[in-house]
Amino acid sequence: MISDRNLFDRLITWYESAKVERRERTESREVDLRCVSPQGQTSLYPDDLPLVFLSRNDAKLMPGFLTHYRSLGVTRFICVDDASTDGTREYLLGEPDVDLWASALRYAEARRGRLWREALFARYGGDRWYLNVDSDEFLIYDDCENRTLWSVIHTLEDLKISRLPAPTLDMYPVNLGTADVNQLKTRAPWEVADHFDSRGYSLATTTRAITVKGGARHREFESDLELIKYPLIFWDEDCRFGASIHQPLPYQRNFSSVLGALLHFKFFADYEKVIEDAVADGQYFDGSAAYAKMTEALAGTGALQLFSHSSVKFGGSKQLLRLGFITPVPKSTAGGER
After folding, report:
1. CA-CA distance, 284 to 17, in Å (whole number)?
2. Mean pLDDT, rounded, for 306-334
């Protein structure tokens, strides 16, 4: 099991964490953020379950995104909109359970959004559980169709686990050209981009965290992007993101079983425009190099084809359990809801 690490490995992790934490504490954290919601910043109550997310031109996903996380028990959405031009900001301004924030900084200047996230956790208060995702990421966990996140949180607390590891799984349709984004107005995104790679992944541990690589982008574009994230996290005064969203501090908390997966939605019929905009914007990791590789592939073939012999149609949380992408979340003795 991931948590069964020997004493030497644990000591190395502790030392690495202490070293990076010391450096992070000495760095300046001035962040430009302003709440643009009509109601201003709202207060969180003890029984609230807040979700912090970043968005950039994801208006097509917003109805499904909010619906999905509301069904999991989220009561307050806290969003930084990164200069969207497609109506994302206007849509979110009309949602009463969303606090919308804007910044003069762009995503890359805010350390790929990490400074925004840390600033929002500070403003809304620590010593509580948060969801922490992007607007194209949909969390799936054991029996999420029937149990809310409070049930999972109670279990994590019983097990003394303070964050939930989850790899991102790239979702795509059989035929990209027929995946009309207008379908997302009435259908969940996994009903439109409904396939993912069922094999071709690697899982290991480093001194700082779990690492997962692979998936459709690795298969087609030789992308070496890190897939692991920690979308459900108990945030306290010891927490920081440090050098990477994939390796939150303190590192000692990163080594529990993979209890969830993030369905990641980038590929619909408008994928060429999405790729072109990402390359032109240059805000993503390594100057949007992963998207530049997709542009090169498009130039060579004229179209992307992600469907392959590795592809399977998404069939819910039980399927991910059966395939080994996630592990069971036992029911807590403390009860399921709050």
Report:
1. 25
2. 94
What does the alpha-carbon distance between residue 208 and residue 10 come to, in Å, rounded to a whole number?
Answer: 10
87 near 31, Cβ under 8 Å? Answer: no
Which residues touch 331 (CB under 8 Å, ≥6 apart)?
151, 155
Residue 132: strand, helix, or coil: strand
CA dist., res. 182 & res. 156, Å (int): 38
Q: Which two tokens stand for residue 263?
A: 């369905």
- How far is residue 111's CA from residue 127's CA, in Å, rounded to a whole number? 24
- Please state, rounded to an integer, the average pLDDT across all residues of the chain: 92
Alpha helices in 27-113 (DSSP H): 62-71, 88-93
Indicate whether 179 pLDDT > 60: yes
Instruction: Please report, for residues 65, 272, 278, the alpha-carbon distance to residue 184 in angstroms, rounded to integers and kept in the order given.
Output: 10, 18, 21
Contacts 24+ apart (CB under 8 A), 210-218: 210/2, 210/165, 210/254, 210/255, 210/258, 211/246, 212/167, 212/258, 215/168, 215/169, 215/170, 216/170, 216/172, 216/306, 216/308, 217/170, 217/290
Burial 85-102 (b: 16+ CB within 10 A, else e): eeebbebbeeeeebbbbb
Query: How far is Cα 279 from Cα 268, in angstroms, rounded to an integer?
Result: 17
Calculate the alpha carbon distances from 157 to 74, 195, 333 in Å.
Answer: 18, 33, 11
pLDDT at 183: 95
pLDDT, residue 334, reads: 67
pLDDT of 239 reads: 96
What average pLDDT does range 57-78 have in this prediction?
97
Amino acid at 161: I
Give the C-alpha separation, 33 to 78, whole Å: 12
Whether cis (ω within 30° of 0) applies to the bond prior to 167 is no
For a pLDDT cut of 70, what percent of the chain falls above it? 93
Other Cβ atoms less than 10 A from the Cβ of 309: the count is 7
pLDDT at 285 over 60: no
